[in-house]
Amino acid sequence: MDLLRSEPMQLVQLIIPIESAHRTVSYLGDLGFFQFKDLNSEKSPFQRTYANQIKRCGEMARKLRFFKDQMTKAGLSPSTRSMMDDDVDLDNLEVKLGELEADLIEMNGNQEKLQRSYNELIEYKLVLQKAGEFFQSAQSSAAAKQREAEAELRGEGSIDSPLLLEQEMVTDPSKQVKLGFISGLVTREKSLAFERILFRATRGNVFLKQSVVEGHVIDPASGEKVEKNVFVVFYSGERARNKIMKICEAFGANRYPFTEDLGKQFQIITEVSGRLEELKTTIDIGLVHQSNLLQTIAYHFEQWSLLVKKEKSIFHTLNMLSIDVTQSCLVAEGWCPIFATKQIQNVLQKATIDSSSQVGTIFHVLQTKESPPTYFHTNKFTSAFQEIVDAYGIAKYQEANPGVFTVVTFPFLFAVMFGDWGHGICLFLATLYFIIREKKFASQKLGDITQMIFGGRYVIMMMALFSIYTGLIYNEFFSVPFELFGPSAYGCRDRSCSDASTEGLVKVRATYPFGVDPKWHGTRSELPFLNSLKMKMSILLGVAQMNLGIILSYFNAKFFDNDINIRYQFVPQMIFLNSLFGYLSLLIVVKWCTGSQADLYHVMIYMFLSPTDDLGDNQLFFGQKFLQIVLLLAALVSVPWMLIPKPLLLKKQHEERHRGQSYALLHNFDDAVEMESHHGSESHEEFEFSEVFVHQLIHTIEFVLGAVSNTASYLRLWALSLAHSELSSVFYDKVLLLAWGFNNTIILIIGILVFICATVGVLLVMETLSAFLHALRLHWVEFQNKFYEGDGYKFQPFSFALLSEEDD
């Protein structure tokens, strides 16, 4: 398994007997090394052979989603311990799912009816109680008033009294006004509007009495808990009654019959209470029965769901196969790695035996000029780094894979910007939590951000380890230096000096063995020193990585036998880049080694403006002036070297190929492919020299300008490293030390909390994200554009292991 280049792939044709086709595709899905090509792309999904089977699987998936919703409502979760039952096939499962769905729908319908009746009886009982109390209090109040009125009449004994009493006695009972009433419940939030509308609609010719129901009442129609009031409306006349009925319907007020007879009221309440007990018992029994059924479904749910997904994916794959003219075989074409040939053949033989087919599947390797898919065999450690590269573009088949180098260079460049071994330890401990519990997290459904962090846990771990390394080089632990590898090489100028950060320091012992000497921190020259160090280090790292990219372009050209790219692209690019910025890197190293005070800015500027002038104090070594003139001329020569010969040679090769003098495969050359991809037939395309020349001109200008801009782009390593260091120093000096200086416990606790929040929020979250994005840009733009085309397509085999959790 080689991660540098794609696994060798082959195009294979399978001729499968129709009786073993289903089992063959199923076994290939278990193996996961075969990518099928769609041989029926001109047909719509409904015109394909297995459209009905896919429709059946979709219907079964719908039933399973219905079961999952019911289990969620009941508080059940699918069991993960159910064993695969080999006896279950698609037809039996379809019948079983249909029966279970019908049972559940019937149970739900019965439960809804019973629950609705139960809620209506509850409301009816409340109406009987509240309205009964109202009528009882009204009747007792009326009786008391009548007794008072009779007592007053007997006490007065006036002349008019007998005449009035006699008049009342002789009044015709049929002419007395009789009031009707309607009782029920209305939602409390609508009660005021209900009362106002009743008053306006009847012009005040009604009497409304409301009573608040304590607690919540389950509404029979919606099944939701709401607050309600019991009401009784008294009216006179049929028209008023009709208006009240319509208003009740508009407000969703439930009406219930009520009688004034106290004996009948008691009898109805007794009947309603008995009926409620019966319904409660029936509902409880139904819920137990439904729960048992759902538990049975939950036990087999994962097995059934996996079976349906597998069958649906198998039929989708079978629809990509073409049927031969005899209607007895299916023809499949697809890509597979060469190393998996023996495994695929064994699987095909096993499928033939298990399906009792008398004819085996024919395995035939096809010769093709089509570009194969790219397949890198990754593991859980390298997959995240490969995803970083794939996000830019999938590697062309057999192209050098930047993912191999990204495993080291990406976390290292991140660490250069994030160098602090205290922050690195915090980042490492956070990542270690995900790595230790990765089995638990892998089996759970995580949120988007958590899933992203978990997927890149090994990338973050490498970033943290490299940050600890660079932090030890910078000698920073939350911006505090430590003498970890021995005492500082510098001491106070004399014994009487008290402030070594303002007075000068002198070297008193051997150089600090590893990293930056701790005495540099806190001095007036700390910032100029670290600026110079990190800026020059960024240029060295940038030039090294860009040279690595150009060297990889050589290995690509060598692998594809492209001598033109080696001679007229790789060589002049190496000369141009190293004549300028390779020379600058050499000057930096020489200056560090010799301790020279030469101004490198002056050297590089006047190398172009006045290459023949004497260097004076800026000369670092003997023969530097002559070397600069040679390198400058080499850089100038390399530009036309990149631009002119390649288009001319491509034109010559094209002419020789058509004259029959050369049988070289032109498609091996990258530029020829780019040029010829615009034309229809590969054997009759025309060579457009102007297009090729303009294309090469663009590439040349892009490289020349990019060499300058890309080198300057690596200075972000210096800028972000300096920003991270200064932010860490500010939080330590202006928050933690400032709080410590107050000698107050409360202020100290507040200061520590602010320091922790600032460190986590700004330095461990925002700065981590910022450094990650900048490292990503350096790899995608500055490194990969030197050699990486990224115009391939990914190998996507038919595999049951890749089935998504949610069915489409």
UniProtKB/TrEMBL annotation:
Superkingdom of origin organism: Eukaryota
Coiled-coil regions listed: 90-117
Keyword Chaperone: no
Membrane-topology annotation of the record: Multi-pass membrane protein
Family, as annotated: Belongs to the V-ATPase 116 kDa subunit family.
Entry's transmembrane regions: 412-436, 457-474, 537-555, 575-592, 626-644, 746-766
GO CC, alphabetical: vacuolar proton-transporting V-type ATPase, V0 domain
GO biological process, one term: vacuolar acidification
GO molecular function: ATPase binding; proton-transporting ATPase activity, rotational mechanism
Protein name listed in UniProt: V-type proton ATPase subunit a
